[in-house]
């Protein structure tokens, strides 16, 4: 059995669903970052698969830029998370939503 485009797109859809469930149900910010990474990587799998299927490098280059943006997003997010933890000694998403001064 040969692995075709549909297999990659099904894998991408399953991973996107897992990531979406993680984003919607998590209260811990670290798990929220992990779920966001799963979302972005599922989209990258789709981009790379379609790009390979069409014989064009555009989707693969776009996936590379998405990886670079995701890495910088996680770096900034983790920096903010460390500052928040140093000030409040806990990482609770509900507490962050209140935005007390």
Could you give a quick summary of the protein structure above?
The chain has 101 residues and is mainly α. The chain is 83% helix and 0% strand. The chain has a single domain (5-98), classed as Helix Hairpins, CATH 1.10.287.
Describe the structure.
The chain is mainly α and 101 residues long. It has one domain: Helix Hairpins (Orthogonal Bundle), CATH 1.10.287.3510. The protein contains 4 helices and no strands. The termini are far apart.
Going by helix content, strand content and strand pairing, the class is mainly alpha
Count of runs of 4 or more consecutive helical residues: 4
Mean pLDDT: 88
**What's the CATH topology name?**
Helix Hairpins
What is the radius of gyration computed over CA atoms, rounded to a whole number of angstroms? Answer: 17 Å
- Following the backbone from N to C, one meets helices and strands in this order, namely HHHH
Topology, element by element:
Elements: H1 5-25, H2 29-54, H3 58-88, H4 93-98
Helix pairs in contact: 1-2, 2-3
Core attributes:
0% strand, 101 residues, mainly alpha, Helix Hairpins
